[in-house]
From TrEMBL:
Belongs to the bacterial solute-binding protein 5 family. The keyword Ion transport does not apply. It comes from Haloferax litoreum. PROSITE patterns: TAT (PS51318). It holds the Pfam family SBP_bac_5. This is ABC transporter substrate-binding protein.
Length: 575
């Protein structure tokens, strides 16, 4: 970095970016949906008590309008650089802004803190919005973005978050792609990339690419996880971890649309059915985390409606090839895929709120290969493949699963039991290891699992966000063993979001070509081919693509359900 602070180079922090990726945990991103009953009591607050402290919703005596958002899990941090969790993103999206936004409910890009943006070759040009202030009163300038970026990826920066603090988003969102940032005054930046990289502008719209105040970075350091300072439509009023409540108040100086309510309260209620009851009784205004039974509850409520849209996500079971020799044989992985009745899981356990998956990319993302079908339920074919691979007598392995339901897996325990039953029919014994979500993420990020359930909600609707983020090891070529299609979790710089430890060179080459091409037709062809390989090689059992479901009170107007980003609570009004 130059003495005047107007240029920051990638070369000095490459090693730090790799370490961050190796130590961070995958959180399935923007999700956190649930099932009818959960095996874990989240200790959520009593919403009746919450309502009594809110002072009502915009009645005639001038009480504040309070929007109450019910969800299944609390946010463990309020720093978007400290987590990959969707529960974190739901709140930080209200507190912080990104340079570029997604149009609510769409995948198209629009202005955010940047009013103009372009990408040509390896150069991104950004013009910033003037007159924007942070919650601490500081004016937003290009220096804030540079400080935010360096805090995320540059170990030489005095205020770098630290390898144990920053999440895996640092490298694959910004760090691996930015070579240098040139600042020209307060409101103009030129970003030089390390290569042509098609998703870059979309990456700038991801929740993890939001902007901290430089002054707040220098004042709070990692304590920003409890003291967020953004430019967003709401600001933190109260963080009550003990009762799992977060109260936000309207930012009167917000530069954008809204906010249209005085306060937002995030309420944690662990069971879906209880959350749905709270919506129906008027104690909550919007809820997520809906499975079959709770969705019916919402549909039957006289004062609420079920809002549904096609999701952009994938639910899967990852084979850890680094842990189990059996899983290094693709015939075994294929056998397990044939043996698990994913059609029954989707239709009977998930009650038709999802469709069977066939590949890493959901159907509504560029590069999804429509010629691929899900693995059919075929125990005879599974048994034949096991015998061919030398495991005709079966074997045993541990299946790690989260207890907390997610939208892509609303009934994780029942799904795990179904998998165990299906595989038992072909002589494979499954030991189910249930964990709460936080410990589960750490356990699997360390590669301690044999196999595990996980899933992913898109951050930017680009195929790279699935194909590279989840199934590319992101290590240097000389770290790979020739002829081996897996890599150890302790490899320097390893991408722990790749829970299967898969390292197929042909697949990796195609995905890297897809990153570097700006031709949409070429990208589609490359990802089609990469999905074919991923389907055939089966590093995952492809489970489902899930719909997005929300319960919304009839007194709410302006709510826009979104498969990317959001929730857009600044647009919501209460009648």
């Amino acid at each position: 970095m130059s003495q005047d602070g107007n240029s920051v180079s990638r070369r000095r922090f490459l090693s730090a970016a790799g370490t961050a990726a190796a130590t961070a945990a995958l959180a399935g991103c923007t999700g956190g949906n649930g099932e009818e009953t959960t095996t874990e009591d989240t200790g959520g607050a009593d919403t009746t008590e919450t309502e009594s402290t809110d002072g009502g919703n915009g009645d005639d005596n001038g009480s504040p309008q309070v929007l109450r958002y019910g969800r299944g899990s609390h946010s463990p941090t309020l720093d978007f650089q400290n987590s990959t969790s969707g529960e974190v993103a739901k709140v930080t999206e209200q507190l912080y802004d990104t340079l570029i936004n997604f149009e609510p409910g769409q995948s198209t890009l629009t202005q955010g803190l940047a009013t103009e943006y372009s990408l040509e070759g390896q150069t991104a040009s950004i013009t910033l919005r003037e007159g924007v202030t942070f919650h601490n009163g500081e004016e937003f300038t290009a220096d804030d973005f540079v400080a935010t970026y360096r805090r995320f990826v540059d170990s030489d920066y005095e205020y770098y978050g630290g390898d144990d603090y920053v999440s895996a988003y640092g490298p694959f969102t910004l760090g691996a792609w930015i070579d240098e940032i040139q600042v020209d005054g307060d409101y103009s930046m030129t970003i030089q990339l390390t290569q042509t990289y098609a998703p870059f502008l979309r990456n700038l719209a991801m929740f993890a690419a939001a902007v901290h105040s430089q002054a707040a970075i220098e004042e709070y350091g990692t304590d920003l996880n409890k003291n967020p300072v953004g430019t967003g439509p709401f600001q933190l009023e109260n963080l009550d971890d003990a009762n799992e409540l977060i109260r936000l108040s309207a930012n009167p100086d917000y530069w954008g649309d809204g906010p249209n309510v005085d306060e937002v309260v995030f309420v944690t209620i662990g069971q879906n059915s209880t959350r749905a009851q709270s919506l129906a009784s008027g104690e909550l205004d919007i809820i997520d985390g809906l499975g079959a039974q709770s969705s019916i509850q919402v549909e039957n409520a006289s004062n609420a409606e079920l809002v549904r849209t096609e999701g952009i996500n994938i639910g899967y079971m990852a084979f850890n090839m680094a842990s189990r020799e059996e899983f290094r044989d693709k015939r075994v992985r294929q056998a397990v895929s044939y043996a698990i009745n994913t059609e029954a899981i989707v239709n009977e356990i998930y009650s038709g709120f999802a469709t069977q998956a066939s590949q890493p990319l959901p159907p509504n993302v560029l590069g999804h290969n429509s010629d691929l079908d899900p693995y059919p339920y075929d125990p005879e074919q599974a048994q034949s493949l096991l015998e061919e691979a030398g495991y005709g007598d079966g074997f045993s392995f541990e299946l790690a699963t989260f207890q907390n339901p997610r939208g892509y897996n609303p009934s994780p325990i029942q799904t795990a039991e179904t998998v165990a039953s299906n595989l038992g029919d072909i002589g494979i014994e499954v030991d189910i290891n249930q964990q709460s979500f936080g410990p589960f993420l750490e356990y699997t990020a360390q590669g301690r699992h044999d196999a595990c359930f996980l899933g992913w909600y898109t951050d930017n609707a680009d195929p790279d966000n699935f194909m590279y983020v989840l199934l590319h090891p992101q290590v240097e070529e000389d770290q790979l063993t020739e002829g081996q299609d897996w890599v150890s979790f302790d490899t320097e710089g390893y991408n722990t979001s790749n829970r299967s430890a898969w390292a197929n060179q042909e697949y990796m080459d195609l995905v890297e070509q897809g990153q570097s091409s700006y031709d949409e037709a070429e990208r589609e062809s490359l990802y089609n081919e990469a999905n074919q390989i991923a389907h055939d090689e089966a590093p995952w059992v492809y489970l489902d693509y899930a719909d997005e479901l929300r319960g919304v009170s009839s007194r709410v107007s302006g709510f826009q359900i979104a498969a990317i980003s959001g929730p857009y609570l600044n647009l919501v009004s209460l009648e």
